[in-house]
Amino acid sequence: MVEVGVPKVSVVVPAYNCGRHIEKLVASLLRQSLPASEFEAIFVDDGSTDDTGERLDRLAAAHPHITVLHTENSGWPSRPRNLGIERARGEYVFFADDDDWFADQALERLYECAKTYDADIVIGKMAGHGRGVPRELFRKNRFNATLENAPLIDSLTCHKLFRRSFLNEHGLRFPEGGKRRLEDHSLVVRAYFLSRRTSVLSDYTCYHHAQRGDARNVTAARLDPSSYFASVRDALDIVDANTEPGPLRDRLHRRWLRNEMLNRLRGKRLLAAPEDWLEQVALESQKVIQDRFAPGVAAGLPPMQRAVAYLTERGRVADLRRLARWEAGIAAHGRIEDHQLADRSVTVTVAAELRSADRPISFRTDDGRDVLVLPVDEIAPEVLDSTAQVRKARLDVVARRRETGDEIFLPVQFSTERVADPTEADTVHLVHRATTTIDFGALNGGRTRGSWLLKARVTNAGWTEDAQLPMLFVCRADGAPPRIRDERMPWNWLRSAVGRRIRR
To answer: 9-218: which CATH topology?
Structure first.
């Protein structure tokens, strides 16, 4: 039982020199459907040197459920978050960033999910605005998710609801002492192993995760490779302390190999990096691969990522650059082949494929195997074996609400066609087709007012790429029949662009 007068949720927000960028978060907290008497927001001003402290003090003076703590600058979010935990009174604690914001019913829905399923942790669906967010994790609700049965490891930021007694029972706090990169990982990974129940709420977008346009949030600065990879090793230590060698440990380790190492050594991200910094990142990644990862870690990756790991482990930085130049041109190309409107439903058929520049991504057929064709020589054939990935390749159709960034996976029937390359013997590329019926009376729980774009999302051989489709659905009210606008028409494109400019 919760004590009388104890808030259901405490929202803890570290703040530093955020100025006007905090306004979206504040406005979203004041709009929450959860009554103000049932939650509190604790802003911890980490020694701001602009007017952030004064802004927050005025806010707290006007709203009794908002508290402001002022502390000397620590330079990182860890200490402010820990101070917020100590001050929090809520049954649950949510960690938010000062430049993000909540959907209107977020706290109410997160708390209801936590109570219904007696969860220690609830992960609400996130929308990214200039930031990546998990995709597969939020494909469906998961009310008893574990590291074994769900892709929880894809969500290591702290923007989640935690039972406060759970945090205190296990002494879960963020690591302090200087600028500790990946501070979220230390707490969240431990929490996943300790949680009695973790739930994933995917049928409502709860949290909007944003990258500030001025890139002045404290974690935006370029990482120091040595200290950063020390933090990677710390996270791996937590995994190793809670698992035995084998498939689960390999799968969890794979997350850091993929996200913190290989993704920095690929495509446009590699090409944009200073040369000396890139050399350091490649060297630190090579050390971790050699020192910490069993063979099954890289072996479980798709072929493109296996190739980058193969080159990294062998220190072949020049070949990484050559591969990056080719990969930088990769994009999904999609088209609408047919659409039919019936009252509030639209049936759409989509075709899409992956290309690098003007050439499709190709596979060489070799003794019954599909082998990815790359512009780099001397990579072991087993590294490029794509047979399993080609069989699992898929095309999703995603509806995205333009006004909010909400994304909904649509149910599809899809197929893949193998198309022979007329210029290369025994070489094929893949064309994917999908048909989906969108019921605008049921989409997003009936909350359909606004403008909906369609995206073709192609997943194959280590890439997941989106192609925006040139069709816009406009619903004047929730559940209303959509008006269809063909964005390929010059006048419609101009009208949409002008409308977006005016709204800004």
So the answer is: Spore Coat Polysaccharide Biosynthesis Protein SpsA; Chain A (3.90.550)
